[in-house]
Every structure is written in C-alpha cells, then in structure tokens.
Amino acid sequence: xxxxxxxxxxxxxxxxxxxxxxxxxxxxxxxxxxxxxxxxxxxxxxxxxxxxxxxxxxxxxxxxxxxxxxxxxxxxxxxxxxxxxxxxxxxxxxxxxxxxxxxxxxxxxxxxxxxxxxxxxxxxxxxxxxxxxxxxxxxxxxxxxxxxxxxxxxxxxxxxxxxxxxxxxxxxxxxxxxxxxxx
Length: 183
Fold this sequence. Notes:
Blueprint: H1 15-51, E1 61-70, E2 74-78, E3 88-89, E4 92-94, E5 99-118, E6 127-143, E7 148-155, E8 165-174
Antiparallel strand pairs: 1-2, 1-8, 3-4, 4-7, 5-6, 5-7, 5-8
C-alpha cells in the first residue's frame, strides 16, 4: 500500500473536478466574447451615428444690415454673409419655415423718423415707432411660409437720401424648428 495515496489527496485529479474546471473556463470565455461583441457593436453604432444627417435642417436665421436709405425704397437691407440660412429678396427677408421667430431691430438715424416692421402685406405691422432717432426693439412673432419681413421708413422733414444710418441691423431667428419648411 505504499504506492496508493489516500482518497482525499486524489480529489483534485478526479474526472468530475476536471469537468467543473473546464465548465468554468468555458463560461468565462463566453462572457469575454459577449463583452467584445458589445464593444464592437458600440463602436460601429458610434461611427454610423456620426454619418447620419441631423433630423432637422440648420436653424433658420439671418442678420442683415441697413446703412443707407434710398428715395422711394426706404432703407436698403443687405446680408454681409452669403452663407446665411435665410435670404434677402426684394429688400425683404423671406420666411421659409413656420414657427416663432425672434426679431431684433437696431439702428441710429441722423434725423427723426417713423418706422414700421411688417411681415405680410395688408396686415398690421409687428411694431411701429413714431418720431424716433434710434431704435432698439426685440420681439417674438409667429411667421409662416411665404411671409416677408420688411420695414418702411417715413420722415417728416427730410428726403430719404439725406438720412444716415449707423449700426443698422435686423436679425431674424427661428425659435421653434421642426415645423413645415420649404426650401
């Protein structure tokens, strides 16, 4: 009996113990494989999401300047940035999307005048100022597709060509994207 080892020393070499050890290694390998699969899926989705265009188009906005007033046309508005999402046409800002717009009008005039900001012909102005030499107004209005934001200037004593404008700017920014838009 010298070559025979006691039973409790042979437990580690028994076939049942080897099966449990292999089973544990298999479970660990499966968990690692699932972890790798999740990492790979996350990376693929991240790259795919960066290539998908945004759900909404860029925010509609424009900043125009008015520096001179012409006879019979009022103040001429121009857009210094050609990459604006909104455009100037026939001395007015064209509205392409329905929604609420933030409208800011600023400027200093050499003479006292009356000024009205319109969005649609035949409608009341968004705001109207009388006998002012400067304007710094801001407001919110609901505008719709095909509306045109423009303003009229009237003077009481001076011809249009004599009016000098300093720092004249009109800013229009869409506040509620996601409504109807036409481009």
